[in-house]
Write a structure and sequence with these properties.
Blueprint lengths: L2 H11 L6 H17 L6 H25 L22 H18 L5 H20 L6 H10 L1 H10 L4 H24 L1 H7 L4 H5 L3 H23 L3 H20 L5 H30 L1
Length: 289
C-alpha cells in the first residue's frame, strides 16, 4: 500500500470525505460562541474551538469504527469502511485516534483550567459513545451530549463559568440529536435488528415519527426559552421559525420511512442548525448597527 493510499484510508476513517458530522457538531458550538460572546466572539478562542470540533469529530469517528469493527462488515452501509474492510488495522486506528485527541488537547492549553477539566469529560464522552449502542435504549441522547459539549466548554472559555443558559442549550442539542440521528438510524433499522444493537429508531418503533416531531418541538422550545431570557429580537425568532419550517420538511421527507429519504433528511439537518445560528448572528449584527 502506497502512502497516498494509506492516507486516503485514514481520511475515510476520519470521515473527512463526509463533513455532515463536523457541521452537526459545529453548529451548537457556534450558537454558544455567539451567545456567550454577545455577538463578539474572541476570534482566537473561536478558531481553537472550530479546529477542536474537526479534530474531535475525526477522533470520534475512528473510535466508533474501532468499536464497531466486528459489526460494520454485517451492515450494508458500513461494510466498506476502512476498518471493516481490513484496509486499516485496529492498532493503526487506536494510534490515529490518540494522535487526534492529543492535538485537540494541545489546542486548548492556552485556555483556562475549567476548559481543560471539561476537555477530559469531552474526551470520555467521545470515546464511550460508540459502546452505548450495546446497552442504552436511546444512545442518540448520549450522542447529543457528546456533540453538544462544545456548548458548556464555550461558556467556560469566555465566561470562566457555566451558566444555566449553557445547560439549556445543551439540552436543546440533545433533543435535536435524537431527532436527526433517529432519522439516520431508520436507514439501518433492519440490519440493526438482525445484529442486536440498540438505536432510538428501534426503541421508538412505530412511534418513531411522533418521537422525532416531539424532539424537534422540544429543541425549538428550549431555544425559544433562551431567547426570552436573553431578550433576543425578532431576528432570532425568525431563525427559529426557519428552523421549524425545515423540521416540517424533514417530517414530510420521512413520512413513509423510506431509507433514502430518511438519510436525505438526516443530511439536511445542517440547515436546521444553520438557521438557528443565522438568527443568533443576525440579532447581534442588527443590534450593533
Amino acid at each position: 500500500m502506497t502512502l497516498t493510499e494509506r492516507l486516503s484510508h485514514y481520511e475515510k476513517l476520519m470521515r473527512l470525505d463526509k463533513p455532515i458530522g463536523i457541521l452537526l457538531l459545529l453548529w451548537p458550538t457556534l450558537w454558544a460562541q455567539w451567545l456567550a460572546g454577545n455577538g463578539r466572539p474572541d476570534w482566537l478562542i473561536l478558531w481553537i474551538f472550530v479546529m477542536g470540533v474537526v479534530l474531535m469529530r475525526s477522533a470520534g469517528c475512528v473510535i466508533n469504527d474501532y468499536a464497531d469493527r466486528e459489526i460494520d462488515p454485517h451492515v450494508a452501509r458500513t461494510r466498506e469502511r476502512p476498518l471493516a474492510a481490513g484496509k486499516v488495522s485496529p492498532k493503526e486506528a487506536l494510534l490515529l485516534a490518540a494522535g487526534l485527541s492529543l492535538l485537540a488537547f494541545l489546542l486548548i492549553l492556552p485556555l483556562n483550567t475549567l476548559v481543560l477539566e471539561l476537555s477530559v469529560v469531552a474526551l470520555f464522552l467521545a470515546a464511550s459513545y460508540p459502546f452505548t449502542k450495546r446497552f442504552f435504549a436511546i444512545p442518540q441522547a448520549y450522542l447529543g451530549i457528546a456533540f453538544g459539549f462544545g456548548i458548556p466548554m464555550s461558556y467556560a472559555a469566555l465566561w470562566g463559568e457555566i451558566p444555566l443558559e449553557a445547560w439549556i442549550l445543551l439540552a436543546a442539542n440533545v433533543f435535536w440529536a435524537i431527532a436527526y440521528d433517529t432519522q439516520y438510524a431508520m436507514v439501518d433499522r433492519t440490519d440493526d435488528l438482525r445484529i442486536g444493537i440498540k438505536t432510538s429508531a428501534i426503541t421508538f418503533g412505530r412511534f418513531d415519527l411522533a418521537a422525532i416531531a416531539v424532539c424537534y418541538t422540544a429543541t425549538l422550545g428550549l431555544l425559544g426559552w433562551v431567547g426570552l431570557q436573553r431578550g433576543m429580537s425578532m431576528a432570532f425568532y425568525g431563525g427559529l421559525a426557519t428552523a421549524a419550517a425545515i423540521a416540517l420538511y424533514h417530517m414530510w421527507l420521512i413520512r413513509e420511512r423510506d431509507p433514502q429519504q430518511c438519510f436525505r433528511a438526516f443530511l439536511h439537518n445542517t440547515w436546521f442548525g444553520g438557521a438557528v445560528f443565522g438568527g443568533i448572528a443576525l440579532h447581534f449584527l442588527l443590534r450593533s448597527l
